[in-house]
Amino acid sequence: MLITSEGLVLRQRKIANNRRMIVIFTRQYGKISAGTSLTEKSRSRAALALRPFTFSEYELFKGREAYSINSASVKKSYFSVGEDLDRFMVASAFINFLDRVLQEEEPMPGLFDLSLEFMDSVARASAGTVRTLLYAFVVKSFSMLGVMPEITCCVNCGRELESFGHDAQGNAPGKLKLFSVSSGGVICEDCANREKSDGDALIYRPTFDIIDTLRFFMTRPLSTFEKVNLKKETADSFGQIIAEYTSRYLGADILSELL
Ligand SMILES: [Zn+2]
């Protein structure tokens, strides 16, 4: 059966008989692996669509056991991200993140569209803000991947934010300052003490407001972060928390490499 889909290349490797296996995040079919005898170096236009950091349209033959690439055409290439080290590191971490968290043949069109937005933003942003952009992308992906941290009440006892001094909009922060990676959200002092005595707790007390920061990342459009640069200390500390969180709930230990 012939199918067509837009997609982003995640990685490729050589297989037998001079063929390559290309792993593509497609809009319609999710992550798929497709064989091809094309190589990047061949002179056809389709060969360009095998490169990383390329958004292309693929025509695929779906066999009983595998996909193979029938033809491909580039819709947009992001080669410029390869010309700057910061951009390249961040875009590579992004691609690895997608590769780890996506299940084969499980369509995630919302995450696909967010991924294209991310590549557009990385190409436009100033080099100094690209790490913040990646954090925004990862935080936005949590709800799509079903691992959204609890930030509206204590993750353990369910006590509402307002009872810690927040108003209904979540303003006047300052009373609920702890984030428990092990429990998956913000946590009150009492529950944190109980959790710590159980042994295996991973709890952070950041110097910035973790609820405001997570909410900021979740609600603003991704393009906002082309111009937002967190203080280095905040970015490092926030990065460490979401690196641990991502590693624990998504099995993707890729953000710690950027710290
Ligand atoms: Zn509690």
Would you state the CATH class of the domain at 1-77?
Mainly Beta
- What's the CATH architecture name of the domain at 1-77? Beta Barrel
The helix-strand sequence is EEEHEEHHHEEHEHH
Helix proportion of residues, in percent? Answer: 25-40%
The biggest beta sheet is recorded as:
5 strands, mixed, barrel
Distance between the termini: 45 Å
Q: Which descriptor suits the 3D outline? A: elongated
According to CATH, what is the topology of the domain at 1-77? OB fold (Dihydrolipoamide Acetyltransferase, E2P)
**Number of E-type strands:** 8
Could you give the order of strands across the largest sheet?
1-2-3-5-4
The CATH superfamily label of the domain at 1-77 reads: Nucleic acid-binding proteins
Count of helical segments? 7
Give the ligands present.
zinc ion
Rg on CA atoms, Å: 21 Å
Low-confidence stretches: none
Averaged pLDDT:
89
User: Into which percentage range does the β-strand content fall?
Assistant: 15-25%
Structural class: alpha+beta
Textual characterization of the structure:
The protein is an alpha+beta fold. It has a domain at 1-77: Nucleic acid-binding proteins (OB fold (Dihydrolipoamide Acetyltransferase, E2P), Beta Barrel), CATH 2.40.50. 35% of the residues lie in helices and 21% in strands. It contains 7 helices and 8 strands. The protein has helices at residues 45-48, 85-101, 109-124, 130-144, 189-197, 210-219, 232-250, and strands spanning 2-14, 20-26, 30-36, 54-62, 67-77, 178-180, 185-187, 203-204. The protein has a 5-stranded mixed barrel. Strands 7-6-8 form a 3-stranded antiparallel sheet. It is elongated. It starts with a strand and ends in a 9-residue tail after the last helix. The mean pLDDT is 89. It binds zinc ion. Zinc ion is lined by residues 154, 156-157, 159, 187-188, 190-191. Residues 154, 156-157, 159, 187-188, 190-191 line the site of zinc ion.
